[in-house]
Design a protein that fits this description.
Elements lengths: L3 H10 L5 E2 L13 E2 L3 E2 L13 E2 L3 E2 L14 E2 L3 E2 L13 E2 L3 E2 L13 E2 L3 E2 L13 E2 L3 E2 L13 E2 L3 E4 L2 E6 L4 E4 L1
């Protein structure tokens, strides 16, 4: 366990490295924090992410139950892993550079016109419908969700996983998705 002074030193002096503060006694981060690597805040007491947060790698908020939202100006170039977090909605973002993993999160909806460059993992979330104009450049995981139909304008670069060992693929002849 880091002391409070060590955590502050890590945040200010390790800008070029990944920062793993999981299971530490962290309750806040400074505004305009830039980390060129990944930031892991899993199992911390942090309630609010700072304004101007830029992360060059992954953002991991596993089991951060006190965080209810992401700042609107957040920039994450890697994966966003929000499983078990208290976040219930995403800011009005239109592009996620890496994978967006919302598995087992409390996210209820996604913004319209969202493009995810990697996988979009919605497994076991309360999401009941996909947004309009959703583009997922790799796989879409919707197992454990109550999504009953797919939007006509949905674009998925690879496969849609509905439940274990089952996936949907696009039938380009009929422009519909079918089970594989």
């Amino acid at each position: 366990m880091y002391t409070r002074e060590q955590i502050i030193d890590l945040m200010y002096h390790h800008k070029n490295h990944s920062l793993d503060l999981s299971n530490q006694d962290v309750d806040r981060l400074p505004d305009d924090l830039e980390i060129l690597g990944s930031l892991n805040l899993s199992n911390t007491n942090i309630r609010v992410l700072p304004k101007g947060l830029e992360i060059g790698g992954d953002l991991v908020l596993t089991d951060c139950k006190d965080i209810k939202f992401l700042p609107s100006d957040i920039k994450v170039r890697g994966r966003m892993i929000l499983d078990g977090s208290g976040i219930t909605r995403l800011p009005l973002i239109d592009f996620v550079d890496g994978c967006l993993d919302l598995t087992d999160s409390n996210i209820h909806s996604l913004p319209n016109d969202l493009t995810v460059d990697g996988d979009l993992c919605l497994s076991n979330t309360p999401i009941t419908r996909l947004p309009l104009s959703l583009i997922v450049n790799d796989n879409l995981y919707i197992d454990g969700c109550n999504i009953t139909d797919l939007p006509d304008d949905l674009i998925v670069g690879n496969r849609i996983f509905v439940k274990k060992k089952t996936c949907l693929i696009k039938d380009f002849k009929n422009n519909k998705y079918k089970y594989m």
